[in-house]
Amino acid sequence: MTERVYKVIQLVGTSTESWERAASAAVERASSSLRDLRVAEIAELDLVLEDGAVTHYRAKVNVSFKYEDDAS
């Protein structure tokens, strides 16, 4: 079996609609600049409040992708 190495980064997606949309925004943005995305894990969900009302949903997302160095 070939060994593989993956790198994990944390992104924060935001949305005025939902946590799902916030998480999707983070993954969609990551996919535009990273190759071989493998797994996305929701690390934390929170809300931005103004005057007691929800204005934004935030999703902290851990995204893993295949690690490649210059020797690959």
Automatic annotation (TrEMBL):
Domain of life: Bacteria
Signal peptide positions (record): none
A Pfam family matched in the record: Dodecin
TM stretches of this protein: none
Coiled coil (UniProt feature): none
Record protein name field: Dodecin
Source species of the chain: Euzebya pacifica
Phylogenetic placement of the source organism: Bacteria, Bacillati, Actinomycetota, Nitriliruptoria, Euzebyales
